[in-house]
């Protein structure tokens, strides 16, 4: 990372990453209150209201942190940008998805339960084209931008100012995986894959001092998940 991260003008740190996560989560909880008593939530509401509200809340909080404690720019503070020169990195996402899937097969066979993350399960159960489109936008476009800016931008860069690069890589990856589990217990079996993905994304962010490649890798990873779920036999019938 550049030495600019240590300049006195930057006052954001690890507590601000907690603030962003807790604040966005609180807003998402309030957004879910209208359907809190429903036994089954309409996927359109999940993908068209709840998911966008949470993602926009994270971005809004990041902007607030940048303007109040940083240099007022998500690119200059956290490295948020997407460069055409990094387009090839997108293909690493599907490759990682394949490797992780093969690595997790023994756990699936031993556990006997193939239930996946809640949002992915909901995608697999819906036949609504609009709901699928909204999920794709949220998962393939918004999620990589939002999550990379928070975890490999704010959190990772804050850690780099306190600990060694290696420690920052692994701690940020573990937090990335743990937060997915806290938000959805069904993600438990995917924790090793999520942590490994977090390590790879952090290493790319460290190497390039930019979120461009991590965002594109993350997008390719999520796109592969979306396509595989939609092409599952149950969804083709």
Please explain how this structure is put together:
This protein has about 240 residues and is mainly alpha-helical. It has one domain. Helices cover about 70% and strands about 0% of the residues. The protein has ten helices and no strands. Helix 1 (about 15-30) runs antiparallel to helix 2 and helix 7 (about 165-185) packs across helix 8. The model is unreliable at about 1-5 (pLDDT under 50).
Largest sheet: none
Unreliable residue runs: 2-6
Q: So what's the overall shape?
A: globular
- Beta fraction: under 5%
Radius of gyration: 18 Å
Element order: H for helix, E for strand: HHHHHHHHHH
Q: Give the total of beta strands.
A: 0
Structural class: mainly alpha
What value does the average pLDDT take?
88
Count of discrete structural domains: 1
User: Which percent range fits the helix content?
Assistant: over 70%
Distance between the termini: 50 Å
Alpha plus pi helix count: 10
Short note summarizing the structure:
This protein has 237 residues and is mostly helical. Helix content is 72%, strand content 0%.
Task: Write the topology of this structure.
Layout: H1 14-32, H2 43-69, H3 74-78, H4 92-111, H5 118-125, H6 129-160, H7 165-183, H8 191-208, H9 212-230, H10 233-236
Helix pairs in contact: 1-2, 1-6, 2-6, 4-9, 5-9, 6-7, 6-8, 6-9, 7-8, 8-9
